[in-house]
Amino acid sequence: MLSTFHRLGFRRSVSTYSGLTSADFLKQKTNEPILEYRKGSRERQDLEAALDYYSKNITDVPLRIGNQKITNNLERKQVIPSDHRSTLARYTYATGEQIQEAINVALEARSAWEKKPLVERAEILLRAADLAGGKYRMKLNASTMLGQGKNIVQAEIDAACELIDFFRFNAVFALELETYSPISTKISTNSLQYRGMEGFVAAIAPFNFTAIGGNLPTAPALMGNVSLWKPSDTAVLSNYIIYELLEEAGMPDGILSFLPSDGPVFGNTITQSAHLSAVNFTGSVPTFKTIWKNVADNLDKYVTFPKLIGECGGKNFHFVHPSAHIESVAAGTARSAWEYSGQKCSACSRVYAPKSIWPKILEKISEIHKQIKLGDVRDGSIFLSAVIDDKAFERIRGYIDYARTGADGAKIVLGGEYDDSTGYFIQPTLITVTDPKSKLLREEMFGPVVTVFVYDDKDVDQVLNSVKDATPFGLTGAVFSEDKEFLYRARDTLRDAVGNMYLNDKSTGSIVGQQPFGGSRMSGTNDKAGGPHYGLRWASPLTIKETSIPLTEWRYPSMD
Ligand SMILES: NC(=O)c1ccc[n+]([C@@H]2O[C@H](COP(=O)([O-])OP(=O)(O)OC[C@H]3O[C@@H](n4cnc5c(N)ncnc54)[C@H](O)[C@@H]3O)[C@@H](O)[C@H]2O)c1
Ligand SMILES: N[C@@H](CCC=O)C(=O)O
């Protein structure tokens, strides 16, 4: 495989901040290193310059359809959540007609793209990875920090490292798929081609991970598909920077259209097209259900059955056994529940803790809570910043106010304050409840709020069993126990309740190539982005049998 890249002129001369290039990656298959951004370092200075630039300049984001850059209107704004009077970018919504035009352009571009050798498409992603690691790294990080409310490290692990990893691992996993060939015999030569799907893919992205925005349209494109990319309204700028770097990496016109748009207008237009081949969605359960229902309503129209891939929400748990390592429960829970304001689909939002050690855990979490700083994303010392927008602020505030009434035996133990005068700030909050069926333990809040149910130690097995089916979700969960017999029993009991399980570790932080990610039940179709089989979801494999000895006999031997 390496020699193929060298033959194609894949050079080492690219400069990246971490020093790891795609050429190195092909030999080592390692994840993109996370930069530290210490004060005064080169990367910190460059990041601060990029933050300064985007803070002072409003960026215009066009629609991209084929070779057109459409900048009419630009009536919509992406604001900075921690300073919501400041505009980061201006953009416009694609109309239904423009989305239809993008479908036509994509269908036109599809045939030549799908016939290109996979290695040539992979090479574009590998070049894109190097651009993301070098020239574009600070643009990606600064736009993600300002637009999506991430602190330095949260932006770096997402917009730089995870994006780069998606590009590189997807490319290599796809090339590895191609190494399989079916058995051929004396009379027939058999082959399997990982053909792209007939039609177009609609890639619908969430706000919370820039890397997911980049992965949803490009993983299908790698496999020979054409994608309509609909970014989230609150991640338009960072997603467009990915579009630009892909263009620089050699992505031809028409393969990806960039279409900020009203969700229902986009959803209705793509599901009414006979040529929809797949939806690659990441976002909330209600939106995915709407899309699925739209597809069902249009089922008689389609040329091919559209594949529906959706990664959705969660109500992720930390289950603590009396033998658990207390510091690790406290640090893991504070990190998982509060970093990025609990806006990771995998964030811990419910904890089951035994009475015997809960006071010690709470003491440690309280110490952490005292040191945590909430503030503007440009302040390098913050742990978390504002939540994404006014709707999120209202939703999370509603849950905190519910807890404040004392319903379900709720008590706000840490945090509980909020203020949206400058930014959508919500303090990291910890609530205890006495009712194990409380909605605070069942519903996804998607904010920096964790709910704890303290159980009697003698009930540990009964509580473990109840966690299994306590919510409709099945995304992530963690068990903390130094008692290995219990740890593995819990792992087996909770097998259907998660797609990613953590033993003695927090429920967030999956890494491409290390923990392929996705959940089941209402958390999604569990296609494991970042894993070796993800590419298969975007192929419509074609099997070809070529016979060298003509078939002339029609009778079976048994007939004689
Ligand atoms: N499981 C995962 O891998 C994963 C990863 C990230 C986020 N998430 C989930 O995503 C959610 C947060 O993201 P969000 O707030 O951006 O989600 P969302 O459902 O509000 O929006 C997701 C996307 O769908 C679009 N949309 C809205 N209505 C639509 C319609 N009718 N048809 C087509 N598209 C439509 C939105 O504009 C946006 O681009 C949380 O529930 C989180 O758990 C899951
Ligand atoms: N891969 C991420 C979650 C993605 C969803 O938001 C994590 O596990 O931290």
Structural notes for this entry:
The chain is of the alpha/beta class and 560 residues long. Helices cover 38% and strands 19% of the residues. The strands form seven sheets. A seven-stranded mixed sheet has the order 14-17-18-13-12-20-21, sandwiched between helices. A hairpin with a 5-residue loop joins strand 15 and strand 16. The termini are far apart. It binds nicotinamide-adenine-dinucleotide and 5-oxo-L-norvaline. The site of nicotinamide-adenine-dinucleotide has 31 residues, from helix 10 and helix 11. It holds the Pfam family Aldedh.
Task: Describe what is shown at a glance.
InterPro entries: Ald_DH/histidinol_DH (IPR016161), Ald_DH_C (IPR016163), Ald_DH_N (IPR016162), Aldehyde_DH_dom (IPR015590), P5CDH/ALDH4A1 (IPR005931), Proline_metab_enzyme (IPR050485). This protein is of the alpha/beta class and 560 residues long.
Strand content: 15-25%
Mean pLDDT over the full residue set: 96
Proportion in helices: 25-40%
Q: What gyration radius follows from the Cα positions, in whole Å?
A: 25 Å
Structural classification: alpha/beta
Number of helical stretches of at least 4 residues: 16
Main sheet overview? 7 strands, mixed
Q: Pick out the low-confidence regions.
A: 1-13
Strand order of the largest sheet: 14-17-18-13-12-20-21
Bound molecules: nicotinamide-adenine-dinucleotide, 5-oxo-L-norvaline
Shape: globular
Q: Give the terminus-to-terminus CA distance.
A: 52 Å
EC number: 1.2.1.88
GO molecular function: L-glutamate gamma-semialdehyde dehydrogenase activity
Catalytic activity: L-glutamate 5-semialdehyde + NAD(+) + H2O = L-glutamate + NADH + 2 H(+)
InterPro entries: Ald_DH/histidinol_DH, Ald_DH_C, Ald_DH_N, Aldehyde_DH_dom, P5CDH/ALDH4A1, Proline_metab_enzyme
